[in-house]
Amino acid sequence: MTPKPASGSLQxxxxxxxxIFLAPALIALLLVAFWPLARTFYFSFTxxxxxxxxxxxxxxxxxxxxxxxxxxxxxxxxxxxLFTIVSVVLETxxxxxxxxxxxxxxxxxxxxxxxxLIPWSIPVVVSAKIWEWMLHDQFGIINNLLIGLGxxxxxxxxxxxxxxxxxxxxxxxxxxxxxxxxxLILAGLQTIPEEIHEAxxxxxxxxxxxxxxxxxxxxxxxxGVAVLFRALDAxxxxxxSYILAGNNERTMTISIYARNQLISFQETxxxxxxxxxVFFVIALVAVLIIGALRLDRSTTAGR
Amino acid sequence: xxxxxxxxxxxxxxxxxxxxxxxxxxxxxxxVVFVGPSGCGKSTLLRLIAGLxxxxxxxxxxxxxxxxxxxxxxxxxxxxxxxxxLYPHMTIARNIGFALETSxxxxxxxxxxxxxxxxxxxxxxxxxxxxxQLSGGQRQRVAIGRALVRQPKVFLFDxxxxxxxxxxxxxxxxxxARLHEELGTTMVYVTHDQIEAMTxxxxxxxxxxxxxxxxxxxxxxxxxxxxxxxxxFIGSPRMNFVAGALLGEKAxxxxxxxxxxxxxxxxxxxxxxxxxxxxxxxxxxHEHLAYVEIARDITWTVRLAAHPDRERGAMVGLGWAEExxxxxxxxxxxxx
Lengths: 303, 336
Ligand SMILES: Nc1ncnc2c1ncn2[C@@H]1O[C@H](COP(=O)(O)OP(=O)(O)O)[C@@H](O)[C@H]1O
Ligand SMILES: [Mg+2]
Known about the structure:
- The structure holds 2 protein chains of 2 kinds.
- Chain A is mainly α.
- Chain A has one domain: Orthogonal Bundle (MetI-like fold), CATH 1.10.3720.10.
- Chain A has 13 helices and no strands.
- Chain A starts with a helix and ends with a helix.
- Residues 298-303 of chain A have low confidence and may be disordered.
- Chain B is of the alpha+beta class.
- Chain B has helices at residues 42-50, 92-97, 107-120, 136-148, 166-183, 194-200, 218-223, 228-233; strands at residues 4-13, 16-26, 31-35, 57-62, 65-66, 77-80, 154-158, 186-190, 203-208, 211-216, 240-243, 256-259, 265-267, 274-283, 288-295, 298-304, 315-319, 326-328, 334-335.
- In chain B, the strands form 4 sheets. Chain B has a 6-stranded mixed sheet with strand order 6-7-8-3-9-10, sandwiched between helices.
- Chain B is globular, with a radius of gyration of 24 Å.
- The two termini of chain B are 40 Å apart.
- The A-B interface holds A 193, 195-196, 198-206, 209, 213-214, 217-218, 300-301, 303 and B 50-52, 72-75, 77-79, 81, 83, 85-91, 98-99, 101-103, 128, 130, 143, 146, 150.
- Magnesium ion binds next to helix 1 of chain B.
- Residues 42-43 of chain B line the site of magnesium ion.
- Chain A: This is Sugar ABC transporter permease.
């Protein structure tokens, strides 16, 4: 007997075992992710309605073109993109700043690290309601404070003033998710060996240069992953806007738009097409960000 | 180039004293090696000199200037770590030249300096690569290059070769010795490797529990250890000890006696100072190590040039020249 076939059968056994171990996860994914997704794609080519989804005709790309011609869809896209960019940028900057602070040997650092997680651990609905009350134009503590300080004369209707409401949504999102950024960036900071900083310190490299040329580049993978997670999360944001402002055009996200088509207008076909759009928009953003990360990695690795 | 002097330097973390009242004067251009058991404070002492940790009390001066309160970046020192601590996202060239980028030098001058240093360390063919593409020995050369480029007054090394395998270690040891000869810069070097300490040092500082046990040339420490700790620490395999009482009148009142493994010969029973059971023989090729139990739970090591031709379990007699015997008093200090 030559060893070749033996090792071949061993390999086959390993491959088989691998599939066995993967199977539960794959089956779960097929059921809860792939199946609904496939149904959504399917319905997006039909004129089905919610009151009787079993009666429908295939209408080709009509749903997609109708959505592409809907001004409200494009407003929702604009809101979503604006919300994503502004909130992720703010969260990243704040997260970086707070993580750098928490990485110092401050007294009570452990307690601070735990405390910072609180906003993130509260369910979004609860946070949104808390802030809604705090921002209430008559009974809210924020207006109360502002009036008390003499900064405004009458309470500001934060969530009812069209020009303010998207800002309020962004503000609350920043409050909720900055801790997540802090956590990921802090983890990244702690992977940078102390001695690298010390070597630069001893060599007389000034602190701004140590930050720009050592800390920040070495944090890039951590920040990249955090931005990816946050951006994908922000692109499909639904709850915060919906709780604070319902169907307000100023805060309507693409997820809310899809929900409206599906539930409010009972248009299963249109709603499915909108959902499919949401899926592809998010997939595109994911591919772009991941591509950017890979690109960065290959420039540090390459040459 | 500069002298370094420590005056009553102490360091405590909370209630724990790590460095206790250390006095040390390092001459300009001297190569001083700190040795001592793990956790005795070698790295801490080096970091105190570097200014990476502040002293709890005492003064540090470099080139006759008081540096106690001067930040690490202004002390004119460079440090090489065991972990190399290279910047992983920068090319080797940038790693070496990084500290010069903010020194006011132009790009061409930096490049010229980096190339010079790289050539000196034989890493000029690696300049375009990244640290992770280099072997351990090459990385340590880069770390040394990075330290060299600023022409520091004092070089600090914290176990720079401990991550390397034996061959590379020997090669880098020679390299560091050559650098010291060529540059003549003051060097302070931490190691737990006897060979590095013995071969590189002008003077060795033996540390134990944050205190200096003895300072001296390698020969002084080997021949005239000030106390039992130094006697046991310098020399490999370590010195054999036995309670004075066991040797009776040869002890001349000493509490503990010591003999180095290389000073012992196998002798016939009637000439033996002590005798014992041969427990084990190790053949190292160029020498043999014999382990002899001379009393219950006291096993001595004997270094032999040739195979002793005795079976395991045999009784062997051990002898040595009178001047090879070290005597220590109750406090562990050497006595005449
Ligand atoms: N930042 C610190 N805080 C508290 N204890 C420390 C700190 N740094 C070192 N030590 C303690 O100081 C002692 C000496 O450490 P070190 O100088 O690294 O020893 P060595 O380098 O000789 O092995 C050790 O017991 C270590 O635990
Ligand atoms: Mg150490």
